[in-house]
Amino acid sequence: MSEAIRYERVGDIAVLAADNPPVNALGLAVRQGLQAGIERAESEGAKAVLIYGTGRTYFAGADIREFGKPPQEPGLPDLCNRIESSPLIVVSALHGTALGGGLEVALSSHYRIAVPSAKVGLPEVHLGILPGAGGTQRLPRVAGVEAALDMITTGRHVGAGEALKLGVLDRVVDGDPRDIGLAYVQELLDSGAPRRAVGELPAPAPVDFDSVYDAVLKKGRGQQSPATAVRSVQAACEAATFQDGIIRERELFMDLMNSDQRLGLIHAFFSERAVSKLPELKGVEPRPLASISVIGGGTMGAGIATAALLAGLNVTLLEMNDAAAAAAKGRIEGNLQGALKRGKISQAQFDTLTNQSLTMATDYAALSDVDLVVEAVFEDMGVKKQVFTKLDEVCKPGAILASNTSYLDVDEIAACTSRPQDVIGLHFFSPAHVMKLLEVVVAEKTALDVVATGFALGKLLKKISVRAGVCDGFIGNRILATYRTAADHMVLDGASPFQIDKALTGFGFAMGPYAVSDLAGLDIGWAVRKRKRAEGMDPRARDSSYADKLCEGGNFGQKTGKGYYVYEAGKRGGTPNPEVMQLIEAERAAKGITPRDFSDEEIVRKYMAAMVNEAAKVVGEGIARRPLDVDMTLLFGYGFPRYRGGPLKWADIVGLSDLLDDIKTYAQDDAYFWQPAPLLEQLVADGRSFDDLNKETA
């Protein structure tokens, strides 16, 4: 027997206890132990088998340490078939989570009991695959096709109560999983219950699978794994035998295993876990963090305050006057009302957060004892320096002074204080209580324990925290400015903003760049353009003014009802604003540009080439330490399709050499904008990839 599975006899019952901490992952030793345990129980004359997990969970899923390695026998599909085919009654007792392969093992058992807090699910689609050990064949037989399609295509976790109603579980009982499992098995034996193999149950009734496939593909913005899983469930209904369905499931599983989307999603999975693990912070203790202050109660500041309150922090929000403070409190209460309606907090918690945990203030003296201050005022260096000068005077020694700036120089902000070691950038994304990305911007003199505290705060707020260096726009907005400029150049040359948006949502982005601008507010980009022009633009840079004219007319996007698109009350989304093309055509004529046609494929390629090239510069300059930092920034802050892994993973997949050739071709028409990144050129010359750099820094 494997040490990962402990074998015990209790009367006629063979007990197989998983002991593979921390989550009883279904690694080789566990699979071998389960198979050996079933065989031993059969050879020793047991009448039934109980499978359960010690520690905090049943089998939580596959062993991620085996990802990408050659499979070793017994594989999970064979193990599940072996468990199901046993002539003994096999029962699984679930607690914690039974996810992916864990639920597939449970479904291959003949009966299932769980504690009320248990959760089950088949989240494989999030890794670019589908349940490959019978999950798409067995789940529809116990839960019905519609419920199975919902669980499999969304990958959502289902609580024990719902799983019982669906038929995934046979019983839910409070208690120790071993105890309730043994009692249930004994009851089954005493009542003469039959062995009940899910694979021997009748095939479920079919649905309109073509319609479901199309709907799932559209909802996933082109992600293949959920839609392919629909076809696998279809096999459960239409295959001649259960075994034929299993064979079809395996074929579809292998198709996905060999897909680029699986590569992207696996990269995203591991990178999400690696991004906040920085070698320089190993052993560095963060500073205490019990209370924070937010300066500025607009949309961003109210969102930051909301996120902090929901994380259990006491928050003091500073505004200029009582009226502004009242408005800010109203925004925070509105955010928390949303959490209340969604069941995230109770009415009692809402009352505590708004009346006790939140303090409104109009005097800087109220910030004298907070542990950390986040400034979220207008994006103007003069204004921010005034705020930090005042904070330097009133905040206690050791308090962390953080700026939520999106673009400005954190070193320059820190220099106006007597404690630059305590200053850091914490760039949240709006709405801050919803968006998961946090750029932790490390200035030249920022102390390591301040950096550690920034990451600790991000973890507390359940953010994906990425380390960024100081430059205009840091990681995300610097890259955004470049690929957005590439889009603007294509508009001048003949594409429309609406075609570009359509091409990029077809690529998998949640929104196109012009729709995003309308959502964020066109005045933000306008302010950035004016600042850069005031600082002096290189005469070789192609500039455009049609968007400025939109803003001059008071059209700032969704908040004014008109931008690139026109927005009507009560209607979702917008329709193209006809004035936009008039402005563009007038500028083309003034600049002497003869417009040409662009294909959607050319738009995507040029847009992505600009993104990758700038991202390579960001990594090469050390603004981002690793390519995966860029990928996580774009995934969690900019709507990049997760199934493509991020721009630099996408670049590895499509080929760096071809991308570099494209960039050099584009440079023949605009050598200033299309300057190849030195890092990209070096990687191509060495025959290496961005992922090689990730592995070097792992």
TrEMBL record:
Name the keywords, alphabetized: Fatty acid metabolism, Isomerase, Lipid degradation, Lipid metabolism, Lyase, Multifunctional enzyme, NAD, Oxidoreductase, Peroxisome
Domain 3-hydroxyacyl-CoA dehydrogenase NAD binding per the UniProt entry, residue ranges: 292-468
For whether the record's keyword set contains Iron-sulfur, the answer is no
Its pathway is: Lipid metabolism; fatty acid beta-oxidation
Q: Which reaction does it catalyse?
A: a (3S)-3-hydroxyacyl-CoA + NAD(+) = a 3-oxoacyl-CoA + NADH + H(+)
PROSITE patterns to which the protein is assigned, alphabetical: ENOYL_COA_HYDRATASE
Name of the molecule in the record: 3-hydroxyacyl-CoA dehydrogenase NAD-binding domain-containing protein
The beginning of the lineage is: Bacteria, Pseudomonadati, Pseudomonadota, Alphaproteobacteria, Rhodobacterales
